[in-house]
């Protein structure tokens, strides 16, 4: 029994040492690669932002000029997210806002919406969705460039009643066999414009022009 007990104790010690060494190796590997992983994530985020507001239009790092937003009414957000500012020589150029279309065919459609200083759309990218492959998934830029149809549009172009897909008497195309997804995305982009307009001073950092009194 003493021999068996000694054997068990020895094996327990060896297993313990093995666990400690393994944990140390894993921890060391994580620490050595964590910086690289974070840098890769940062580059991926930056690439997505630069697709909407290219480097030729701004001289700041949008990843370092951020603020938080948690609006659920117009932006449809379910949690607090970041939005990004682009500036040129310290002057506001545009912002990239997060937005969620909660009325997608199979669930939420998460996107980012770039809006220029003049209130026009700089670009739109869908970040995640669960829409039907071959139909609703055409909102994904990898599948089609349908979202480019929003570029240059604003609250006055088109007028409010035309901010809809053509099936609903609007100006935006829908997909063959799929209307719900483009309808949801179109609505979300329009509401993002409404949010920008309602919060322009906070987003741009530019105070509203004061009306001059006349004598």
Automatic annotation (TrEMBL):
Q: Which residues form the FMN-binding domain?
A: 104-196
- Which compartments does it reside in? Cell inner membrane
Cofactor(s), names only, from the UniProt record? FMN
Q: How does it sit in the membrane?
A: Single-pass membrane protein
Where would you find the membrane-spanning parts of this chain?
12-31
Task: Check the record and name the SMART domains matching this protein.
Answer: FMN_bind
- Entries under InterPro entries matching the protein: FMN-bd, Ion_transpt_RnfG/RsxG
Its primary localisation, in coarse terms, equals: membrane
- Major enzyme class: translocase
Keyword flag Membrane: yes
Annotated Pfam families: FMN_bind (PF04205)
**Entry-annotated residues carrying FMN phosphoryl threonine:** 179
Keywords attached to this Swiss-Prot or TrEMBL record, sorted alphabetically, are:
Cell inner membrane, Cell membrane, Electron transport, Flavoprotein, FMN, Membrane, Phosphoprotein, Translocase, Transmembrane, Transmembrane helix, Transport
Q: Which Enzyme Commission number(s) are listed?
A: 7.-.-.-
User: What does the subunit section of this Swiss-Prot or TrEMBL entry state?
Assistant: The complex is composed of six subunits: RnfA, RnfB, RnfC, RnfD, RnfE and RnfG.
Query: What HAMAP family does this protein's entry cite?
Result: RsxG_RnfG
Which family does this protein fall into? Answer: Belongs to the RnfG family.
Q: What does this protein do?
A: Part of a membrane-bound complex that couples electron transfer with translocation of ions across the membrane.
Q: What is this protein called?
A: Ion-translocating oxidoreductase complex subunit G
Organism, by scientific name, is Zhongshania borealis
């Amino acid at each position: 029994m003493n021999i068996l007990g000694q054997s068990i104790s020895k094996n327990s010690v060896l297993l313990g040492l093995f666990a400690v060494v393994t944990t140390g190796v894993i921890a060391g590997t994580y620490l050595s690669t964590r910086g690289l992983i974070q840098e890769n994530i940062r580059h991926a985020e930056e690439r997505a932002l630069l697709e909407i507001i290219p480097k030729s239009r701004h001289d700041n790092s949008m990843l370092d000029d951020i603020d938080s937003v948690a609006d659920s009414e117009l932006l449809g957000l379910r949690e607090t997210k970041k939005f990004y500012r682009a500036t040129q020589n310290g002057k506001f150029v545009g912002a990239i806002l997060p937005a969620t279309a909660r009325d997608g065919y199979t669930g939420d459609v998460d996107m980012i919406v770039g809006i220029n200083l003049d209130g026009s759309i700089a670009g739109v990218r869908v970040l995640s969705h669960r829409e039907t492959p071959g139909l609703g998934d055409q909102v994904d830029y990898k599948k089609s460039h349908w979202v480019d149809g929003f570029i240059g549009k604003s609250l006055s172009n088109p007028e409010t009643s035309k901010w809809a897909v053509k099936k609903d008497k609007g100006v935006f195309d829908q997909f063959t066999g799929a209307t719900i997804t483009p309808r949801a995305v179109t609505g979300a982009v329009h509401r993002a414009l409404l949010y920008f307009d309602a919060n322009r001073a906070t987003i741009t950092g530019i105070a509203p022009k004061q009306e001059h009194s006349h004598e």
